[in-house]
Structure formats: C-alpha cells, structure tokens
C-alpha cells in the first residue's frame, strides 16, 4: 500500500486537476453504515421496498419510517479525518471538485466547497407532488404538504428509478472528462450512472477501497480504510 500511496502522491503533486468521487465507504468511519458491505443497509432492508418512488406511493408508512430513522441516525454525525483531508487538499488547490453519492452532507461539514451531491441530500425535504420545500421536523412529524395538502413529504435524495439532478450530473461529468486524475473512494460502483465515471476521464484513475475493484482496471488501487489512506496521502503532500 505504501508504494502505491507514494506513487499517488507523486502524480497528485504534478497535477492541478484532480476530481474525487466518493461513496458510502467514505462515511462508514463516521458511523454511517454503507449499503453492500457485509453489515450494509441493503442486507437489512430490501431497497425496492423503501428506496423507490413506488415505495413512496404504495407504502408511505414504511418509506417514512425508513428515512425518518436514517435522518435521526444522522443527528450527531461528524466528519472523520478523511473528510477534512479532502477539504484541505481542495483548499490547497489539489482537488478541483468532489462528486459524492452520499446524502449525509459530511463533505460540506468538513469544509469541502466545490461539491456535486449526485444523489441529493437527506436533509432537504420537499413535497413529492408539488415540490414545495419543507422542514425536517414537518417530515418527521408526518405533516401534509402546506401547499397542496398531499401526504407526500420526502427527502431530497435520488430514489432508484429517478433521474439524477441534471445540472449537477452534467457539471460533474464535465469535470471528470477534463480531469487529469479521478480518485474514487469508498464505492462498490454498482449503481448507474455514477459507476460510469471511471470510464469518462482521460486521466489517471485511482481506487481507494477496503476491497479490490471488480470489473474495472484502475491505474492505482489502494486497499485500506479511507480515513487512514487519505491521512497518509496528506502527510506525503503537505
Ligand atoms: N474505507 C474504504 N472503503 C470502504 C470503507 C472504508 N472505511 N467502508 C466501506 N468501504 C467500501 C466497501 O468495500 C464498498 O466497496 O465502500 C463501498 C461501499 O459500497 P456501497 O455500500 O455499495 O455504497 P455505494 O457504492 O456508495 O452505493 C451507491 O447505491 O444504494 C444506493 O443511493 C445509494 O448512493 C448509494 C449507491
């Protein structure tokens, strides 16, 4: 791992256009479970039953229970060292932008600024019918929409089968296409279209994960915990 980290630090030092893409593995060290690791969320709950628009329409009580629990579990979360390292690398000019699949908001809390929240943000509540914004409390209290009256408040996240926010996705793709380095951290790359990002860059591709990448051929693969690996990269760079 050390040699690959040294190799990575060298190419980062000689680039000024790195884009980072993160997944749920970036948040597990902040005590937010991921989805597909052995104790991930989708081993406890079938995503089709809670994380789809059909679930919202056909079984709102279960949909509401699932996302209320996720919101409450995020009440006291804090960024870990790895989030702060990414914010510092952006501040020092090494990172151009950060595209995340995570809905926790931890990257922004740690100080990253140029962020693309590709799957939205769980704290942004809206009415699924008329799109009026609402507060988390109104969602948790199962209030009806105060504009159209419907019982359809939902978190502003991308459910399976929904489109990604168009402008966010297009800007993230443009940055990846123009990047000299794409660093992919803590994602199993199972979900389209974000799992196409490694094919979109002409630059070097880097994979930081607890497991080997499957079905991809990254230029550099570092097997380790995101927080530890990012801290080692920072020590070599700054
Ligand atoms: N450090 C590095 N990698 C980690 C760590 C860690 N501390 N913890 C977990 N991982 C890795 C796992 O090995 C796995 O490859 O992170 C990856 C997490 O994969 P998933 O659970 O599939 O999460 P993700 O890839 O972000 O899922 C994408 O699927 O359910 C949807 O919308 C949801 O955004 C999510 C999307």
From TrEMBL:
GO terms for molecular function: histone deacetylase activity, NAD-dependent; hydrolase activity; NAD+ binding. SUPFAM superfamilies: DHS-like NAD/FAD-binding domain (SSF52467). The lineage of its organism: Bacteria, Bacillati, Bacillota, Tissierellia, Tissierellales. Residues 1-238 form the Deacetylase sirtuin-type domain. PANTHER family: NAD-DEPENDENT PROTEIN DEACYLASE SIRTUIN-5, MITOCHONDRIAL-RELATED (PTHR11085:SF10). Gene3D superfamilies: SIR2/SIRT2 'Small Domain, TPP-binding domain. It comes from [Clostridium] ultunense Esp. Its EC number is 2.3.1.286. This is protein acetyllysine N-acetyltransferase.
